[in-house]
């Protein structure tokens, strides 16, 4: 029985898919501090104009530049694999496929957007890119891409991960990037936070503030900021995952998946696997689509849909998204890449429209799934990815109980070779489950009260 | 331009290639303590009989069991990639191909033999396997294989690597193996060494003694020992690498490689890529074949061809090989997988016959190459693999100087994601180059004086 489906380089998708063109309800614009829609020009100190054009584009298909494809060829098309050993272990009639994004040199799906972002910046004459990183996957990916394209790269890494994942910062160093722990003393935003709480574990929201501050502070105009998730153009670049998976499912003789699953922090790997199938769902296919988040940071499952800032220091525009409030500091779970208070507006708009079924998973449950995975499929997954595996297992068991031959597809967003300390804590029984109380969430939502509210209307027309 | 050549599962080689059937000079037998050839039965307390049969086989092609293939399918056939970015950087007319063995779940070529070894042991009714490991690649591979096949696994890991590479032992734990630092207090061999030198960095030779002692000590007969390199059956299992590479070079339109390169510690990844091409060389093809070892442990380049023990405590039979003496404790270089005093007899016999051109490389030179690799090809290689890359770079530069379009093939034996501390030391300028003096080597060769001498006759008939 075949366990992997490989595409050759000539079969790589030549265009990205833009869900904004197909959503039944149009995307609501980002707003400035005055509550009015921000113009592309207002973003120009932060991003180069070619990326801003993609950010606001309504075009359904957008060409992938040839030079970007030639870098992606190093690891893409990525394999689609079938988890036959997990299927046997679960005694499920479901067929479980996973798209293996762990094969990139940086170990996750993140280079899919790091490479085009670095390339567009280079085209725009930019010499230096700043960014934030949680678990370090994104920082590694941007370091990798900037190195290949000859750009400088500066990474603000969330303190808790900087300490827990010493090897990721070494990877960035090998690829020539400069990585510092956030909050740092290099920025006003960082210094302010450290003054309030010198022992803060940090958060993506804080690190974003620092990276943006340092980008716009360069008065030569040669520095821009890059975000590894959340924004529309990032979701766009990641759709190559789902577009490849579609071709590969066809190779495996599957007409369509019944269920598509991805873990969701800022939303990018989830969007990557899901959006091409959301398109099919909008056009009438029966597909369930499940973003899975940590119970410790339950943005989609417990946060309201509201306008909010993407960062703690309120340097970003207001985005329409499910959010726990921009001052929410997620507990120090090992799935650092899922510790984000907000979520990609494109994902959130699809959730509002009822196109998706968000789930949350506790830390210990996620590691249990990771261990089942390691001992059946033989691969060690990233702690983020274990959230997707958990839902895949749940759905496979449900298929067994219902006696149905479902096709389950999930995104294997990254390997866990740099995250083994979390496995050690789990095996030692020392891993804590966090779940914020309703009162805690309420407290973090207070700063949202004065902010504009996006429409929560849905068409249900799909 | 294509940068990778992929085979589908149905194109995987169905048989291993046994070089012993084609060597111009026959292999010289292992000898017992009395200097007489040992019989297969004498090895029975250490290995199961089905593996012993492979060890002494003269059959050219040996079938790969179907169940073994089905496990190998998880990552095999492995990609053949072309290093076009390194080629550009070096401005070489050479075409550089590398077989990517880093894609296995354990991160190296080692599972190619771990899986069949565990499978043959299981067939023979064995319940538990003991082994040694250097850098941890082999221990991880055997842990991975034993877990999938439901066998217990005990690993003695060389102390220096146990301390330098904390994550590798966690991988073994995730896969359910029990890993201890060697020398340990669990065996007589370990206790003896610790008594002499409590701070010893350990060596593969010591760890082998411990693993064999513990295997034969199990009087239920349900435990056997497994070796990750050196022996004939291990070389056999690894030939799947070169057999796949041959098909893939043909896909790339190459008639043959001009140069085949692999790093060499015990010899297994080198044999894996090289032996199918040694066969072609014996039959008249013009191919240069280069094993690359560390200057700190220069077995092939500075050790004599002699009968010697494979381990410090002299528990193994005497093997005909290039050796630095079984009491040689290699300096603590980061390429732990290359810290072995001996070398596979099959490799050594081919060297004696003049079929190969061994090279040695200093530690800093190897890391320089690893950094060039990371910043051109974008991948972070294992410290062992950087030795092969160094020779590939040397040969590509030579091709440029000669203005010749050579085809260079090397084995990318593993990734370096668990070995980043070595990179850090290199980048900090803190890495030491070791090279034993002639007097040091002479001292370690003293114990060989009373041992039998193998024939060094060669036919030159190829």
What does this structure look like?
The structure is a homodimer of 462-residue chains. With 462 residues, the first copy, chain A, is of the alpha/beta class. Chain A has a domain at 4-9 and 63-107 and 232-448: Rossmann fold (3-Layer(aba) Sandwich), CATH 3.40.50. Chain A is built from 18 helices and 15 strands. Chain A has helices at residues 49-56, 66-72, 84-90, 111-123, 137-149, 159-164, 166-174, 188-196, 204-217, 232-238, 240-251, 268-282, 299-302, 345-352, 363-376, 385-402, 420-427, 438-445, and strands at 4-5, 15-17, 61-63, 80-82, 95-100, 128-133, 152-158, 178-182, 223-225, 259-263, 288-294, 305-309, 318-322, 359-361, 407-412. In chain A, the strands form four sheets. A seven-stranded mixed sheet of chain A has the order 1-4-5-15-10-11-14, with helices on both faces. The first copy, chain A, has a four-stranded parallel sheet with strand order 8-7-6-9, sandwiched between helices. In chain A, strand 6, helix 5 and strand 7 form a beta-alpha-beta unit. Chain A starts with a strand and ends in a 17-residue tail after the last helix. At the A-B interface, helix 5, helix 7, helix 15 and helix 17 of A face helix 5, helix 7, helix 15 and helix 17 of B.
